[in-house]
Amino acid sequence: GIQVEQSPPDLILQEGANSTLRCNFSDSVNNLQWFHQNPWGQLINLFYIPSGTKQNGRLSATTVATERYSLLYISSSQTTDSGVYFCAAGGGTASKLTFGTGTRLQVTL
Amino acid sequence: GAVVSQHPSRVICKSGTSVKIECRSLDFQATTMFWYRQFPKKSLMLMATSNEGSKATYEQGVEKDKFLINHASLTLSTLTVTSAHPEDSSFYICSARDQGINSPLHFGNGTRLTVT
Apex CA B89: angle with CA B29 and CA A34, to 5°? Predict the structure, then answer.
């Protein structure tokens, strides 16, 4: 099955800083999503982005499907951005998603 | 938007008992639902694919007799953890799509199971 890796595993930022999270996947995909998991475990869907670029406020994401990676950009980070960010990918006829290892982000004052 | 509801959000049970977790698609029909498990500070691992009207498809290493899945209607899938043991304590999350295969998965809020 598809393999999904994320980097960095941990990231500490000062409030106001920008960051880039990376997701590499091992095969072609027809589904790629970015999530933010809050301290209560809820998965917040940030982007559905199997290809191209999308923006939502301070967040944006780009997937280069031909090179098998996706990037999540967080600008002007806030303490509420803290948590774990997951990307998940799926490909072929399988409709399931495989999750990456996650990036744990801590934003400090 | 599509909403997936999961119940209960938290459950504590004694070792040896069984626990049922429900996953409902509130405003759409789902022929397929997915069950994930997450251990503390780990990623989400797919346990099984729940298929309406037929048997679930389990991932390698997941005991189907331990984790019983029933998908009896287009809006409800259930996961029953049978004869629970402390090592089954985990966070269980279900998900479903409201459209075709090339559309996002929507996730429930999860169920935190603690077996004492």
Answer: 50
Residues B86, B17 contacting (CB under 8 angstroms): no
* Average pLDDT for runs of 10 along chain B of length 116: 93 97 94 94 95 92 95 94 97 91 90 97
Phi, psi at A34, each rounded to 5°: -110, 135
C-alpha to C-alpha distance for B105 and A99, rounded to whole angstroms: 12
Q: What whole-number distance in Å separates Cα of residue A31 and Cα of residue A92?
A: 9
Q: Using the beta-carbon criterion (under 8 Å), do B91 and A41 form an inter-chain contact?
A: yes
User: With contacts defined as CB-CB under 8 Å, which chain B residues touch A30?
Assistant: 101-102
SS (H, E, C) B93-104: EEEECCCCCCCC
In the A/B pair of chains, how many CB contacts fall below 8 A? 53
